[in-house]
Amino acid sequence: MTDWIDIGTLADIPRRGARTVRIGGAKDIAVFRTGDDHVFALVNECPHKKGPLSQGIVHGHSVACPLHNWTIALRTGQAQGADEGCTPTIAVRREGDRILIARPASMKAAA
Amino acid sequence: MDLQVRDESRAGVADDIIMPFDDVREHLVVVGNGMAGCRAVEELLAQDGRRYRVTIFGAEPYVNYNRIMLSPVLAGEKSFDDIVINSQQWYADNGIDLIAGDPVTAIDRTAKAVTSRSGRTVHYDKLLIATGSDPFIIPVPGRDLPGVISFRDMKDVDTMLEAAGKGGDAVVIGGGLLGLEAAHGLTRRGMKVTVIHLMDTLMERQLDEAAGWLLKSALEARGQTILTGANTAEIFGDGKVEGVRLKDGRDIPASLVVMAVGIRPATALAREAGLEVNRGIKVDDHMVTSDPDVLAVGECVEHDGNVYGLVAPLWDMCRSLADGLTDRHSGYKGSVTSTKLKVAGLDVFSAGDFSGGEGCEDIVLRDASRGVYKRVVVKDDRVIGAVLYGDTADGGWYFDLLKKGENVADMRDLLIFGQAFASGGGAPDPKAAVAALSDDAEICGCNGVSKGQVVACIGAGASSLDAVRAGCKASASCGSCTGLVETLLAATLGDDVQSGPKTMCKCTSFTHDDVRREIVAQNMRSIPEVMQALHWSTPDGCSSCRPALNYYLLCALPGEYQDDQQSRFVNERMHANIQKDGTYSVVPRMWGGLTNPRELRAIADVVEKYDAPMVKVTGGQRLDIFGIRKEDLPAVWADLNAAGMVSGHAYGKSLRTVKTCVGSEWCRFGTQDSTGLGVRTERMTWGSWMPHKFKIAVSGCPRNCAEATIKDFGIICVDSGYELHVGGNGGIHVRATDFLCKVATEQQALDFCAAFIQLYREEARYLERTAPWIERVGIDYVKRRIVEDEPGREGLRARFLYAQSFSQDDPWAERAAGRHAELHQHLQPIAIAAE
Ligand code: SRM
Ligand SMILES: Cc1cc2nc3c(=O)[nH]c(=O)nc-3n(C[C@H](O)[C@H](O)[C@H](O)COP(=O)(O)OP(=O)(O)OC[C@H]3O[C@@H](n4cnc5c(N)ncnc54)[C@H](O)[C@@H]3O)c2cc1C
Ligand code: SF4
Ligand code: FES
Fold first, then answer.
1. I want to staple B163 with a disulfide (CB 3.0 to 4.6 A). Which of B121, B235, B256, B293 is the partner?
2. Quick check: helix, strand or coil at residue B827?
């Protein structure tokens, strides 16, 4: 069974922005909020050269990596267009205003 | 008015309501004389008019009326008579006993009888519960004060009309469908209305952000105050409501408060009778509850885990119910719903899933001149959602495609133009579809240009989009027909079409220059407004257009435009340069390359305190501290601020450095105080946002030690004054400056510098540095504007200094003071041990 961890509220994340969740001993997780208030979570590393995706410009359901401007789909973690690569995604869900991420999946992906 | 209904609560118990004694048919008793209850009876009568004897109990003292039309009644567009669905005559004609104004208070399932408030007990063979919903009242202090109401029935409308008769202020809590319709009605009735909405977007469950923004603007234009992201703390008043207090401390006066935050299925009666109830009364596919003789229909039920708050599903439910009661077993399968807002002059439609995302394709059309926004979401060649604002004529058609799951691959390219275009012949190819249009088919709605006229214009030599725009005005206004005109060009000319100037990005068909011009011409004030007015084809732009739009607005509206942080590249958002490992480098300003022991000490301390792995002298004559973590940035800035240093903007499309040489103060060749002039120039220009980075240098003699001739603005001091040079850069393609002019005084050098910067700020395209800009417009043009046109130069200079009065606040200082702390902090940390 998935163990869900409450990481904060929707209002904690700027619209078209992201915040990071620090996990002891593992890679940071980037939690994104899109313009239409969808929430996605990815390991905070670009598949290209590990750019911190949380710092990119969020547009539609994608983020532009801050280092070399690859576009990463938030739902799948896949690089878009001609670029190839994939960032692990973390299951996330909303309960009212709260945001929860899946623990085992995130631990594995981020380990 | 058809109100001559027996009101049993007032009339007392009447004994003539039982059907004739010889009627041996099964008795169907309906609880709830609302939309679902009566519709179910109508369906039943249509299927088998004689099978049941029917009695209907209604809590309201009226015949069955169309509840959704309460909004137009409130707004004064309809009267109660207009919204009656079944008149007294209908009940009589069908032998139905209506007991209005007398709610059922208990169900005895063992005795198979219901009891009403007036004490009447009626036996049933089949019972139908159709009690609808109760408005949800948020549990804030003051919710019971007189003057606080909901919007559900005719009585609420009467209360609102009475309050509106006295005028004054009203607050509507809830910016959903119901709340906005209430607000509209009250506004029409002369009240000053404020809508308080918890979320950032109005009707957020039905509309995307773009449509929500349009709706908000339109309502504000009609005089309503719309507060989004606003949370109600309490309703206050002495004996009656006087106002609403928000959590942020604001008080909004009101003599009437309408709560329209949601509804809850009315299940109390069913629950007390021991029926299975979850969110709603649980029913199967034939609307049968956990008791085979009790049925339920409408908003009070839960079917397959779903409860509904719109009428369309009720119609489907009633059909299945009637089928079940007459032994025709079709079964209810759930409903897909669509929404329309009933506010006169505001057309809003939404259906399905319009949130888009992976595998979904957004087709967006914005027609600014008509105030139209349309978004259709397609997935696997099927329409899965639609949001329409301003023109909802095709809502039904999209909804139909959605419900049927029809494959739309063939009409993909014309889908957004609506049914008339897209199904015009069902042509598989847009060219063929356009070719199939008749000559008098309208292509450009704004300017009324027909296909024939466009083709004639092309025939007369127009071979590009611009030429067509110039020739016959098609696509020259809102641009939403640009695709059609291009298709016509291609169809008419084949390969001879000339491609126009490059558009800003894939989100728009406008060029940078068009966008800048329109922002100023139409006095646009926000990114969503530009996207709407210039019909962006994506919901919220991309990483290339958003920073550009943010800059253009900032430049056009100094002091007014609210900068959009999320539309800025990370460096400008974090006020530091991101490095390849995700840490940041910090470059404090060193005016003209000068420093002092206090600054150097503070930098040394920062390097040690935060374990910065490297500090180096930059090519721009200052010190760069590397390897600072985003969490530590505010503290680093606070330390640097304490020593008098501010942001060096080494990260921005902004003024970077002003390099200087030692000049006449020390150098044996120096002709003027190049260091001092450099410092003064930097003091004047720092903090300004530009289309690209901007560098200045001042050299004390033509030996040019400060490399002024590869800077955006370079000053070379000579005995008789100052030579001004513009448009140089290093980089991959080194470009030496063009000579602009020579001036006699320091002040003139500063004035020309300010004017030149402003010309560049106002006219260059985003990410176009001065060198390519000057190559494009020509140095003669720049000379004309800066050197030859003195009043023009003065105007530019004044505009620059005015803009600077807003931008010379150190961005580090406000971050160090805690502003936007969330940008630097993680959400809560999570320990891995819990696995
Ligand atoms: C730090 C510094 C190198 C150094 O250690 O000396 C530097 C570092 C960078 N330069 Fe530079 N440039 C630095 C002085 C220069 C100079 C020298 C000067 O200003 O006199 C030049 C040549 C003059 C010029 O600008 O034309 C210079 C020409 C460039 C260019 C080419 C610009 C062009 O128009 O073609 C780029 C690329 C760009 O901007 O697209 C660039 C880009 C960069 C970037 C921003 C690359 C990037 O996008 O990440 C580097 C950021 C490093 C960082 O994270 O801090 N840097 N760069 C210098 C910072 C100066 C400062 O104090 O602000
Ligand atoms: C202002 C307004 C605008 C709306 N606009 C739209 C719209 O544009 N589109 C749309 O699809 N939907 C709209 N709706 C929703 C729509 O009206 C409802 O979905 C629909 O009326 C539900 O039908 P129902 O029969 O389940 O409930 P109701 O129509 O509420 O009927 C229930 C009836 O049962 C009565 N009742 C309750 N308890 C008892 C009892 N114990 N004994 C006797 N009688 C009882 C109630 O008094 C009520 O008359 C709107 C609603 C409102 C209030
Ligand atoms: S500018 Fe001229 S005078 Fe000044 S340091 Fe350089 S060479 Fe010497
Ligand atoms: S690291 Fe993300 S694009 Fe290079």
1. B256
2. strand
Residue A95 lies in a domain: yes
The dihedral region occupied by B336, where left means phi > 0, alpha psi between -120 and 50, and beta the remainder, is beta
Q: Which domains are assigned to chain B?
A: 8-133+265-325 (3.50.50.60), 148-261 (3.50.50.60), 512-568 (no CATH), 572-653 (3.90.480.10), 655-807 (3.30.413.10)
Amino acid B1: pLDDT: 39
| Two structure tokens written together for B698 | 């001042």
The string of pLDDT tens digits covering residues B67-110 is 988 998 999 888 898 889 899 999 999 999 999 999 999 999 99
The pLDDT tens digits of the residues spanning B671-724 come to 999 999 999 999 999 999 999 999 999 999 999 999 999 999 999 999 999 999
Residue B502 or B398, more confident: B398
Which CATH number fits the domain that encloses residue A84? Answer: 2.102.10.10
Q: For residue B85, what are its two tokens? A: 């669905």
Cα B244 to Cα A62: distance, rounded to the nearest angstrom = 39
**pLDDT tier at B12 (50, 70, 90 boundaries)?**
very low
Residue B512 near residue B547, CB atoms below 8 Å: no
Count of CA atoms in the C-beta half-sphere (13 A) of B271: 9
Edge to edge, the sheet with strand A71-73 lists A57-59, A62-64, A71-73
CA triple B4-B10-B61, angle to 5 deg: 45
- B456 part of contact set with chain A, CB < 8 Å: no
Centre of ligand 3 to C-alpha B599, Å, is 25
Q: How far is CA B109 from CA B123, B300, B410, in A?
A: 10, 19, 57
Q: Do A5 and B543 make contact, defined as CB atoms within 8 angstroms? A: no
Indicate if the pLDDT at residue B429 is higher than 70: no
This complex has an ipTM of 0.70
Residue A64: domain span: 4-105
What distance in Å separates the CA atoms of residue B411 and residue B67, rounded to the nearest whole number?
38
Alpha-carbon distance of B466 to B471, in angstroms, equals 8
Within 6 A (CB) of ligand 2 lie B 31-37, 57-60, 67-68, 70-71, 103-104, 130-132, 151-152, 178, 181, 266, 269, 298-300, 309-312, 314, 342
In a domain? residue A111: no
What's this model's pTM, rounded to 2 decimal places? Answer: 0.61
Six token digits for residue B667:
């150098």
Whether A94 maps to a domain, the answer reads: yes
What length is written for chain B? Answer: 835
pLDDT at B759 over 70: yes
Q: Could you tell me the pLDDT band of residue B498, with boundaries at 50, 70 and 90?
A: low
Give the span between the Cα atoms of B60 and B48, in whole angstroms: 28
Amino acid type, B283: V
| HSE of B763, CA atoms in CB hemisphere, 13 A | 17
A80, part of any domain = yes
The answer to whether the beta carbons of residues B652 and B687 sit under 8 Å apart is no
Q: Does A81 touch chain B (CB under 8 A)?
A: no
d(CA B255, CA B160): 11
* Structural domains of chain A, count: 1
What is the SS3 assignment for B289-319?
CCCCCEEECCCCEEECCECCCCHHHHHHHHH
CB A21 within 8 A of CB A31: yes
B511 backbone dihedrals φ, ψ, rounded to 5° = -90, 170
Whether the Cβ atoms of residue B727 and residue B779 lie closer than 8 Å to each other? yes
What's the 3-state SS for B560-577? CCCCCHHHCCHHHHHCCE
State mean pLDDT over B164-184.
Answer: 93
- Rounded Cα distance between A75 and A61, Å, is 7
The residue behind tokens 């059609």 is: B484
Cα B50 to middle of ligand 3, angstroms = 110
Asked whether the beta carbons of B626 and B585 are under 8 A apart, the reply is yes
Contact B358 A16 (CB under 8 A): no
